[in-house]
Amino acid sequence: MEETYLLNVEGVKKKILHGGQGELPKLQDGSKFTFHFQTLKDDFERTVIDDSREAGMPMEIIVGKMFKLEIWETLLSSMRIGEVAEFWCDAIHTGMYALVSRGMRRIAEGRDPLEGQKHRCGMGNMFDYHSTGYEDLDELQRTPQPLIFIMELFRVEDPSAYKRDTWAMSKEEKLAAVPVLHSEGNRLVLRREFAQAAAKYQEAVICLRNLQAKEKPWEDGWLKLESLVTPLVLNYCQCQLELGEYYEVLEHTTELLQKHNDNAKAYFKRAKAHAAVWNEREAREDFQRVAHLDPSMAAAVKKELKQLGERMRKKHVEDRKRYQGLFQSSQG
Questions:
Q1: Which terminus, N or C, of the chain has the lesser number of Cβ atoms within 10 Å?
Q2: Which GO molecular-function terms appear in the entry (predicted)?
Q3: pLDDT at 285 over 80
Q4: Within this chain, do residues 152 and 172 fall inside the same structural domain, yes or no?
Q5: Are residues 256 and 134 in the same domain?
Q6: Are 143 and 179 part of one and the same domain?
């Protein structure tokens, strides 16, 4: 098909490679595109930069959520379901591609896409990076250039048709989701489904942390959100204790206590985790802090210390027998 400029979009050419079905989808904020894409250089070899099929997963974009490569939303909005189209985009539209590609590649590699990234706009992060970690993307970052995108649109879903990930929610949606997730987590705990409950608490914490990132630390808005985070983290840690994930508990309680060093419940859970991995001195210190901070927990602390003492004595006896057995074997 003959190349044509997209209506009201400067610096873009579209060529339909395979026609789609039906009318153009009706879009609204929160609609989700699912598609495969291939990115090529506009050179003689049409050098392939990225291919979502090789990465093994299709791409998803949520309408209205300020995806860094804004032109993609425009391109996809011009497509019908099942359509395959090739778009030539001038450099004015592709300057952010290196950062977008970096994130997608990291996800495909099982790495954190935001590792090393500061909480700033995309352009700010562009100047923060000395290197993307990929030579071909570094070249694109140094010399923005026209790119070719070949896209195949699979589906477009309304906001009500799928469960939105946390990052795709508005501020109001995140705040509304937190008590629901908290309640669902509590219900799962009662059923002793600790792994599922932990996932609910974790999702609620992520909602709140995302909101906190937009507040100034230790000011009223941040503190209000932090007051909601703390009980969720403690509930999450209790689930991890039940699941035997003691080092996970140590990590999260220690992080919590760095901010709130008077939280008796956090010390109590950390003490139990220390006890479980035979850190006797650390466990005793934390249990003593609990009794000092909250005298109402003194009875629970006394019980835990008694159990810790019994476990440690039993361990010492078993260790002594084991060492004696080894010594006798070596003598024999």
A1: C
A2: peptidyl-prolyl cis-trans isomerase activity
A3: yes
A4: no
A5: no
A6: no
Do 240 and 275 touch, CB atoms closer than 8 A? no
Are 54 and 180 part of one and the same domain?
no
DSSP three-state, residue 69: coil
Alpha helices in 65-215, H assignment, sequence order: 70-77, 97-108, 122-128, 135-142, 171-190, 194-212
Least confident of 161-175, 220-234, 283-297: 161-175
Range of the domain at 38: 4-161
Q: Are residues 35 and 177 located together in one domain of the fold?
A: no
The Cα–Cα gap between 332 and 327 comes to 9
State the average pLDDT for the chain. 85
Backbone angles phi, psi at 133, to 5 degrees: 95, 0
Is the CB of residue 69 less than 8 Å from the CB of residue 183? no
Which token pair is 19?
A: 């026609």
Q: How far apart are alpha carbons 329 and 318 in whole angstroms? A: 17
157 and 185 both lie in a single domain = no
Exposed e or buried b for every residue in 179-201, given b needs 16+ CB within 10 A? eebbebbeebbeeeebeebbbbb
Q: Are strands 12-18 and 84-89 parallel, antiparallel or unpaired?
A: antiparallel
Give, for 63, the enclosing helix (H) or strand (E): none
Higher pLDDT, 144 or 116: 144
Of residues 130 and 233, the one with the higher pLDDT is 233
Beta strands in the chain (DSSP E): 4-5, 12-18, 32-41, 48-51, 59-62, 84-89, 147-157
pLDDT recorded at residue 124: 42
* 51 and 154 share one domain: yes
- The pTM of this model reads 0.54
Tokens 């195949």 belong to: 152
Tokens of 215: 């507040």
Distances (CA, A) of 135 to 102, 114, 125, 140, 325: 11, 19, 18, 9, 58
What amino acid occupies position 180?
V
When divided into structural domains, the chain yields a total of 2
Tokens of 208: 């709140």
